[in-house]
Design a protein that fits this description.
The structure holds 2 protein chains of 2 kinds.
Chain A (H helix, E strand, L loop, with lengths): L21 H16 L20 H15 L5 H4 L5 H12 L1
Helix pairs in contact in A: 1-2, 1-4
Chain B lengths: L13 E10 L2 E4 H4 L7 H8 L3 E4 L6 H16 L8 E5 L10 H8 L7 E4 L5 H15 L5 E8 L17 E10 L9 E4 L7 E3 L3 H13 L8 H4 L6 E3 L1 H23 L8 E4 L4 H10 L7 E2 L3 H4 L6 H12 L7 E8 L3 E8 L2
Parallel strand pairs in B: 4-5, 4-6, 11-12, 11-13
Antiparallel strand pairs in B: 1-7, 2-3, 6-7, 8-14, 9-10, 13-14
The chains are: A mainly alpha, B alpha/beta.
Chain lengths: 99, 351
Amino acid sequence: MGREISVGRVPAQEKGSLMASNEEILAGLAEIVNEETGLATEAVQLDKSFTDDLDIDSISMMTIVVNAEEKFDVKIPDEEVKNLKTVGDAVNFIANAQA
Amino acid sequence: MSAVLTQNTAREFTRIMGVGAARGDVVVTNEDVCQWIDSSDEWIQKRTGIVTRRRADAETSLLDLAETAARGALQSAGIEGSQLGAVIISTVTSPYATPSAAAALADRLGATPAPAFDISAACAGYCYGVAQADALVKSGAAEYVLVVGAEKLSDIIDNHERTISFLLGDGAGAVVIGPSETAGIGPSVWGSDGSKWDAIGMTHSMLDLRDVAVQAEEDPQGNALVAETEAKLWPTLRQDGQTVFRWAVWGMAKEAQRALDAAGITADDLSVFLPHQANMRIIDEMAKQLKLPESVAIARDIADTGNTSAASIPLAMHRMLEERPELSGTLGLQIGFGAGLVFGAQVIVLP
């Protein structure tokens, strides 16, 4: 089995209600991806690659990034976007940016 | 007692009096593009909305395109070339660093000795030109000003690269700006962000090109022209698509809103949206961000003209008015944005 990505209750949850848990981030991202691409929210899993598995192109990716910034009140710089290869990468980045 | 200076008397209002257009004669299809890059008609249409782009043949120069558009604008404005108080060309594709393309155009139009100069503001060039012309007419420095956005982008592209070249076309669009009894051009909202100077631009400078030329001269057999320098022979355009997309959509939607606010109107008052024809996805997303009502006609000339940089807005305006002449006299929002990065926007009364 592949690498495990923690989706447990990270400390963020304890810091107050403004912080989203990793599960909440994943659910929120799935909604954003669904709105941009029409993909079912269940298809948006932590180990999925945005480009290879979800077939999301660079322009759609940027739309998703901007919508995620707004939803989770974080900044995702342009140079960081290329590092967000999987959904899990994005969830972790947003969780860390919120912390 | 010293002499008292006379200054120009300012005018209150200006307007766009007429618009003209010229597109390259050669239709370049997505199939043609796929001979140069590994792609498909479907891929290109999905990502850019472009079906064909129009390019000029080798015999048609930037000035030829500019002249055709300018003559159309003069005719539609009912103005002779000799009446022009200034001639402005916005372009990044003049083959000469100097003299200006505008001086040659002024002469072709019989506008000599009108002041003439070029503006370098890439895809915002037309809106920069309108800002200049509006200010010149309002200040009393000129009565009628010709603004031409003209590009022969096919001269500065590499058909085998895939960040920008396949989007681009050749063309020119022109407007004449003059005095008006009522407000015809809202305040210009324009600016720059040089921190993103690298986001769109040439692969290397003319000085790099000179260095290669010197090497070639010293080594006429061409041994010095190894692959590395060969790629540097002729500078061509590149862009960082993701950075540009984010800035263009979310950054420019804010500036477009500022232009509406400055003009004292809302999106509901608009009849036409004339964004720079950069990419259909940018146009669609901007319209969404601006919450434009369904009633606003959105220019989508890019589908068969391609992205013609400084020419794209007046080309789109010309086409919109040809297809829907009843929109003449109604309010339009124009916004250009591109390499620099630079942007410019105005609310205008359509000629």
